[in-house]
Amino acid sequence: MTTLRFGSKGPEVELLQLGLNRAGLYGPAPDGTFGPATQKAVLEFQRRSGLAADGIAGPRTWQALMPYLTGSRIVTVSGGDSLYRLAGRYGSSIRAIETANPSADPLNLQIGSRLVIPLPFSVVPTNISFTSQVLELCAAGLKARYPFIESGSIGSSVLGHNLLYFKIGAGKSEVFYNAAHHANEWITSPLLMKYLENYAAAYAFGGGVSNKSAAALYGAASLFIVPMVNPDGVDLVTGLISEGSAAYDKALAMNEPPVAFPQGWKANINGVDLNLQYPAGWEEAKRIKFAEGYTKPGPRDYVGSSPLSQPESASVYNFTLNHNFKLTLSYHTQGRVIYWKYDGYEPEGSYDIGRELSRLSGYALELTPPYSANAGYKDWFIQHYNRPGYTIEAGIGAAPLPLSQFDEIYRENEGMLTYAQTAADAV
Ligand SMILES: [Zn+2]
Question: Ligand 1 center to residue 181 CA distance, Å?
Fold first, then answer.
């Protein structure tokens, strides 16, 4: 975390404001500008936390704010503590504490032992820029609350960020959802993370997701999620890679043919379009894109020097080969469209499942337009496995879609995200 002070701007200020908001000290919606209201809240937070109150968010302030960023607090049990008392003290619930601490004996809490106490707000924010940093915080926060979620890294990005994956469910049928191959389509990352959180909460507390029992879903399928295939690109578009940094300047120098910078950037930080990297018609994609003028690293549509030349696409490819996915969804924006076919392949059940996905979301089921009909993840998945794979173009408007669309996009997609986990079983 960067030290932030009056006048600072950017996604880390949004994150700071989110934390202060959750701590009850900052009312407005996060806007990424460290002004008087933010400074006042930081001062108040520092006083309350026993820190030197200087109004500057440095390492100690960030550290103290961490429970509000991850959504839980580690508490050492002392004499007289019970789950009931701990829940009351932190606004948590006994059920939430039990879920987060499966090995603790609620009737015999050991003095000096440490408990994870979930705080009374959800982990995944949907009102701030969703950077790789926010994703890491969500990963830590969700794993702390819901230890049955598995997570780890499938590889590293060009700039060394973990390519995080999550797994939920214990069924034999494996399915795979990925998002944010394209940098300026990052709203799809919180979409999958919010779904993961809602599903996990429903499973933990005996509820349902999209009218389906979470327990039944959990037993039927194993859902794997890579919510941010292109973290470096997302960080560029959201402003976490700040103006004047080496990575920013390098990307800016590659902005040709130019897009609005950085918000129009789709590629990874090397200027390669990650969804034109898969070995399915890659030569054809290259021919088409070169003819359109995309012949070198740039903000969009450059296929790379060879298939899988980039660590992000290679990692997703290898992750796929190491599993046995029956179905995949690849999230993009925008257009409210579902693409289901590749070349002459028509996997068994693929059309019928696509029709149901379309019915659940209200999105149109369509054939991929010729100019983008090759070298995408779903193209390769269909070609390699002859199983149902879909590209979902969520939302409508110009990317990056505003977060004001988030709730609507979530509502449109939750039914699909639930149905697709078991859809291929019926085939
Ligand atoms: Zn896309």
Answer: 6
* 226 CA distance to ligand 1 middle (Å): 15
- Give the Cα separation of 236 and 244 in Å (integer): 12
Cross-strand partners of 176: 224, 328
pLDDT of residue 214: 98
Contact 327, 340 (CB under 8 A): no
Q: Which of 281, 265, 253 is nearest to 182 (CA)?
A: 265
Q: What is the pLDDT of residue 369?
A: 81
pLDDT value, residue 13: 98
Domains, in order of start, for the chain: 1-71 (1.10.101.10), 72-118 (3.10.350.10), 124-427 (3.40.630.10)
Buried b (16+ CB within 10 A) or exposed e, 14-35: bbbbbbbbbbebbeeebebebe
- Reference 214, options 148, 165, 151; nearest CA is 148
Active-site hit among 12, 174, 393, 414: 393
Ligand 1 centre distance from Cα of residue 320 (Å): 19
Active site residue 393: yes
